[in-house]
Write a structure and sequence with these properties.
Layout (H helix, E strand, L loop, with lengths): L4 H5 L3 H11 L5 H12 L4 H8 L3 H22 L1 H20 L3 H14 L4 H4 L1
Length: 124
């Protein structure tokens, strides 16, 4: 199945839940409440409307705008992406060390340090 670039770039439910953890405090109180109810608590638009006093359309708008803001925060700040990359590289280094491949592990560590802006001089 071929996906358009727009479909590939579209944030998943999991992405939005993760971004809500990272950036939820940057949303307005109302938007954070609605996003949490929708993504974390998995409530329907109608259920959220009943709880918040918003219309179903109002809830839909809050979810749409909140998702857009979270996506914008991640695009600019890249915290979730960086944590994922850090986790992947640490697991790779662990695997290399378990196999006694120290030279490759050191290269992976150097890459990681470079990613954090720690050049050769700062590491010495």
């Amino acid at each position: 199945m071929n996906f358009s670039q727009e479909q590939k770039d579209k944030a998943t439910h999991t992405d939005l839940c993760l971004w809500l953890d990272y950036y939820g405090d940057l949303l307005s109180e109302r938007q954070r409440q609605v996003m949490t109810l929708f993504y974390a608590d998995d409530l329907s638009l109608a259920e959220i409307a009943d709880l918040t006093g918003l219309t179903r359309q109002g809830v839909h708008e809050q979810v749409r705008r909140g998702a857009s803001r979270l996506e914008e925060f991640e695009r600019k700040l890249r915290q979730a992406e960086r944590e994922s990359e850090l986790s992947r590289k640490l697991l790779q280094m662990r695997s290399l060390l378990l196999r006694c491949e120290t030279e490759e592990a050191l290269c992976a560590l150097d890459d990681l340090l470079e990613q954090f802006g720690l050049g050769e001089r700062e590491r010495s």
